[in-house]
């Protein structure tokens, strides 16, 4: 994931601004939207919403895995799915500074989103393949691998990055990657991410959309 598309706001904030502008009204105040976003996180509602989706995914794996099949796999996004960049986002007041993002990834210290790590652990316990499919660039591999190992998530089948020179939208990249995985014989029984673009286009038996009030990715 590249945080250049962060615009700061609740999931509906941008739509609210656009609709207000179209109607000739003053849009919602950005500072107030940020306050609402922080209140959503600090109240525990964000964590509860994450846990609810993760529980649904875990229940599905426990139901589906016993039915068997070759090369059953679970695809996980990373940023705001398994790894949280919230400490950096809050430090930057939900802005984006490329050099600081690069330093953050290279340090490999993003905290885990605990309910999703439990889904990962369930997948491994059930003998399912784990495939991490991220919009991070190939140049981010060393820091990302370090981060995953530190969080106890270093046991996976594949870790797929967007090529450094790629110019396509992340959603198109991920769809093409899932298509290739399927053609290679992997059966993706669950695809888990925080963005609609992580999930769109198929090549998964079930999809699980985690909340992300922070930014949108195409």
Question: How is this structure best described in words?
Answer:
This protein is α/β, with parallel strands linked by helices. It contains 9 helices and 5 strands, in the order αααβαααβαβαβαβ. It has a 5-stranded parallel beta sheet, with helices on both faces. Strand 2 (129-137), helix 7 and strand 3 form a beta-alpha-beta unit.
Task: Summarize the helices and strands and which ones pair or pack.
Layout: H1 13-22, H2 30-42, H3 45-64, E1 72-76, H4 86-91, H5 98-107, H6 114-125, E2 129-137, H7 141-150, E3 158-162, H8 170-183, E4 187-193, H9 196-199, E5 207-209
Parallel strand pairs: 1-2, 1-4, 2-3, 4-5
Describe the structure using short key phrases.
globular, Rossmann fold, disordered N terminus, 9 helices, 5-stranded parallel beta sheet, alpha/beta, 218 residues, 5 strands
The CATH topology is: Rossmann fold
- The number of strands is 5
How many helical elements? Answer: 9
Query: What average pLDDT do the residues reach?
Result: 91
> What is the string of SSEs from the N terminus onward?
HHHEHHHEHEHEHE
């Amino acid at each position: 994931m590249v945080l250049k598309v962060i615009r700061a706001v609740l999931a509906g904030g941008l739509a609210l601004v656009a609709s207000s502008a179209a109607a000739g009204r003053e849009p919602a105040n950005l500072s107030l939207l940020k306050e609402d976003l922080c209140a959503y996180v600090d109240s525990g509602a964000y964590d509860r919403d994450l846990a609810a989706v993760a529980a649904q995914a875990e229940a599905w794996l426990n139901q589906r895995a016993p039915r068997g099949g070759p090369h059953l796999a679970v695809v996980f996004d990373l940023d705001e799915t398994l790894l949280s960049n919230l400490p950096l986002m809050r430090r930057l007041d939900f802005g984006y500074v490329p050099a600081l993002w690069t330093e953050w990834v290279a340090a490999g210290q993003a905290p885990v989103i605990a309910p999703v790590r439990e889904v990962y652990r369930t997948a491994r316990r059930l003998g399912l393949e784990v495939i991490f499919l991220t919009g991070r660039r190939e140049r981010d591999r060393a820091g990302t691998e370090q981060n995953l190992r530190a969080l106890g998530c270093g046991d996976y089948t594949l870790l797929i990055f967007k090529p450094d020179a790629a110019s396509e939208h992340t959603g198109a990249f991920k769809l093409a990657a899932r298509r290739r995985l399927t053609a290679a014989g992997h059966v993706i029984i669950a695809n888990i991410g925080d963005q609609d673009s992580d999930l769109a286009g198929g090549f998964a038996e079930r999809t699980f959309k985690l909340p992300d009030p922070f930014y949108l990715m195409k």
